[in-house]
Amino acid sequence: MTAKIVTIFNQKGGCAKTMTTMQVGGTWGMLGLKVCIIDMDPQNTAKLWSLQATAEAPFPAEVLNFAPLGKNFIHKVEQLVDKYDVILVDCPPAIESPVPWTSLLIADYAVIPVIPVLDNVWASKIAEDLIIKARDERPNEVLGATYLLSVMRKGKVFDTCLDSLKEDSKLPIMSSKVGMRNAYPECQAYGCSVGAFGASVAKNEIEAVAYELANQVGLNLKKPKAAKK
Ligand SMILES: Nc1ncnc2c1ncn2[C@@H]1O[C@H](COP(=O)(O)OP(=O)(O)OP(=O)(O)O)[C@@H](O)[C@H]1O
Ligand SMILES: [Mg+2]
């Protein structure tokens, strides 16, 4: 087993990096992958989230707090690749942090969550430039990258911002997207991902993201068995 390494980053704060990591990582875990989530944010949101789970219903991925290690975390991650199918790195928001750059040096794939509002669209340029720099640094390796639209709402302002992201961006935008829904932050209280709540729009939405991303990253996900009638 050699884990694929997926980094979720964007120096912009609050654009749903941790939400994406926990929902996608949890869903991949529920769909049978061995998943490890590396919490690289000193706020430790991912780790705290997973600790809300009970022993009877643990969070469906291992969550490790490597934030105190700073950029040296990559050596620890390299020691884990034989144990998991996929390792997700939840990056901190600060632009001066070395963690997003370091994580791009070991990643197979990078996901940049972006909310379609202008402050996020402006900041995404910085993330995009970092991807381009990392690709230059690793010319013989493939570093895939995509935007994931998150916390989507209806409204003209969001449509306009989305148009401007599409026009200016050099990276693809995933066709699956994540809406603004109460079910997502509710999961923090129970230490789960939306899959644990049963059938819902949020569950369908995250499964669509999880399957699309697995396909792009090269992970083998089995389709869930159809429910018996
Ligand atoms: N799709 C969503 N619907 C509703 N609320 C959401 C959604 N995604 C994220 N949130 C909420 O928005 C806030 C920011 O999300 P999150 O913590 O995932 O962002 P982040 O990019 O990890 O932030 P930071 O930069 O602080 O690490 C949180 O309070 C989270 O619960
Ligand atoms: Mg976060």
Automatic annotation (TrEMBL):
Q: Identify the residues that the record assigns to the CobQ/CobB/MinD/ParA nucleotide binding domain, covering every copy.
A: 6-218
Read off the Pfam families from this record: CbiA
CDD domains xref list: ParAB_family
Gene3D superfamilies reported in the protein's UniProt record? P-loop containing nucleotide triphosphate hydrolases
Write the protein's name.
AAA family ATPase
